[in-house]
Specification:
CATH superfamily of the largest domain: Immunoglobulins
Shape: elongated
CATH topology of the largest domain: Immunoglobulin-like
Structural class: alpha+beta
Distance between the termini: 38 Å
CATH architecture of the largest domain: Sandwich
Number of domains: 3
Order of helices and strands: EHHEEEEEEEEEEEHEEHEEH
Number of helices: 5
C-alpha cells in the first residue's frame, strides 16, 4: 500500500508541468530536466519498496498486564537482509507508534513503549503496521503483519484493607507445625545467640552450662489456607469488587499461605504458585463477560 505525501504531490505536479513545457517548447534541456525528475521518482519507488521488504516485527508482552496501568511492551524489528539496511521505519502496534531510524543489515533493534489498556478482559491483538517515507518522503509505503492471538488484561488492583478480613474462609482448622524456622511452634534446636535474636528466646539453662549465650530455634506455624468468597465481598459495584479481590490475591501470592477463590458457584482450591495466581487473575479478568 502506498500513500502520496504532500511533498510527493508537489513533486508530481512539478514533474507534470515540466513535462508539458518540454513537449510544448521542444527544448532539449527541459526534456533532460523532465527525465531527471521522472528518474528521481523511479529511484524513490525502488528504494522505498526495498526498504520495508522482508522486515519482521515481534511484539513481546509481559506475563501480567493490568487494566489502567502503564505496561512496558518490547517491539523488536528484525532486518534479515544481508546487505540492505532498514531506515526510517515506523511501527504501529496497540495504538502506539515507534520509530526505528536505522537498523543495520542482518541485525535487529528493540524499542520499549508504554501502553495502557483501559478495560479488563480479553483483548485481540491488532495487526502490526509498518510504514516508511524513505528515501525522499514522496511516498509512504505500508505493510500489515498479522499477529494472531489475544491478551487477557487483568483487573486493576484496588486496596481493600477495610474489608478483606470479613471475606476470607479458613479451609483448615487449627495450626500445624512444620520444620522451618519461626517463633511460635515447637523447639527445633538450641544454638549460639546471634545479634538480632529476640531476648525472650534465650535458653538460660544452656547458657549457664556452656558459659555462652544460647537461644532457641522454633518451628514455624503453618498458617491456614484461604479461600476468598467473591460473592461475600461487601462491595456493591462489580468492577470495584473485582479490583479488591485482585489486590488481595496479589497480597496472598507474596506470602506463605495457599489461597483459592470461590466465584460464581465454582471453587478454585487453594494452591500456592505463580501459575495458580495467574489462573485466578484470568478468572477475575473474564468474569461476567459472557
Amino acid at each position: 500500500m502506498i500513500k502520496i505525501t504532500k511533498t510527493g504531490w508537489i513533486y508530481i505536479v512539478l514533474t507534470i508541468v515540466v513535462g508539458f513545457a518540454a513537449v510544448n517548447t521542444a527544448n532539449n534541456l527541459i526534456y533532460i530536466l523532465a527525465s531527471a525528475l521522472l528518474s528521481y521518482m523511479l529511484v524513490s519507488g525502488i528504494f522505498g519498496r526495498g526498504n520495508i521488504h522482508a522486515l519482521s516485527i515481534q511484539v513481546e508482552f509481559p506475563e501480567e498486564i493490568y487494566a489502567r496501568t502503564p505496561t512496558p511492551i518490547t517491539v523488536r524489528l528484525t532486518n534479515p537482509r544481508r546487505f540492505l539496511p532498514a531506515m526510517l521505519i515506523r511501527v504501529v502496534t496497540t495504538g502506539r507508534t515507534v520509530l526505528f531510524p536505522y537498523v543495520a543489515a542482518a541485525s535487529s533493534s528493540d524499542a520499549v513503549i508504554q501502553v495502557t489498556f483501559p478495560h479488563r478482559g480479553r483483548c485481540p491483538i491488532d495487526p502490526i503496521r509498518l510504514a516508511s517515507p524513505f528515501p525522499f518522503n514522496f511516498f509512504t509505503r505500508f505493510r500489515t503483519l498479522d499477529q494472531p492471538g489475544e491478551l487477557v488484561i487483568f483487573p486493576k488492583p484496588r486496596n481493600w484493607a477495610e474489608v478483606h478480613a470479613r471475606v476470607e474462609m479458613n479451609r483448615r482448622g487449627g495450626e500445624q507445625s512444620v520444620d522451618r524456622l519461626g517463633d511460635a511452634g515447637d523447639i527445633l534446636a538450641i544454638r549460639s545467640y546471634l545479634p538480632g535474636d529476640p531476648l525472650k528466646h534465650i535458653h538460660w539453662k544452656s547458657t549457664a552450662k556452656t558459659g555462652r549465650i544460647q537461644t532457641k530455634e522454633f518451628a514455624a506455624v503453618d498458617e491456614p489456607d484461604l479461600v476468598i468468597a467473591f460473592d461475600q465481598v461487601p462491595v456493591p459495584d462489580l468492577e470495584q469488587r473485582i479490583s479488591c479481590v485482585t489486590f488481595r490475591l496479589l497480597q496472598l501470592a507474596r506470602g506463605p499461605r495457599a489461597f483459592g477463590l470461590l466465584i460464581g458457584g465454582r471453587l478454585y482450591p487453594p494452591r500456592r504458585s505463580t501459575a495458580h495466581k495467574r489462573a485466578l487473575l484470568r478468572v477475575l479478568a473474564t468474569h461476567d463477560q459472557g
